[in-house]
Amino acid sequence: MSPETSIHTNLTIRRGEAEDAGLLAELGARTFSDTFAADNTPENMSAYLASAFSREQQAAELIDPNSLFQIAETNGVAVGYAMLRSGNVLSDVTGNKPIELVRLYVSRDSLGSGVGAALVEACIAEARQRGHETLWLGVWEHNTRALAFYRKWNFHKVGTHVFQLGDDPQTDILMQRSITENRRRRT
Asked: Which of 84, 114, 129, 173 lies at a CB distance of 3.0 to 4.6 Å from 4, suitable for a disulfide?
């Protein structure tokens, strides 16, 4: 593990299971709202949260054979999670054998503690184990914290696409990185 991961004591990462639907619905909605509510209308946030983070939606994603969840816990309390999904690769993604990092969410009180780094490492290990060579994602063009984080992990821009938040079409930057590389860049 990278030095960042040891900052958060008693951190464990486990695979998400069907019974985690409620947990992921709550944690996903809370972290998404914490990150984006100030920059979006309440109507658009409500519409997106209702569709993306309902218990039913999370239950469906958890049983999807193309999806995998990694849940980070500190002392048994969920502090973040990541979602990987294979298939449905956007045309700008050019790396070999790609898999998407759909979500990487960390609770506000755990930002900067190494939880995100631990989740990225877990996702890279899982993707490699499944035979993938490229990890890709979309990140909102105005999410400077996330963009800086992904650049430290050797992700680079390969294009853009529209992310629909309620009735607001927003621009996501598509990024990818080889997962045959070992670690994040040292800064």
From this structure: 114
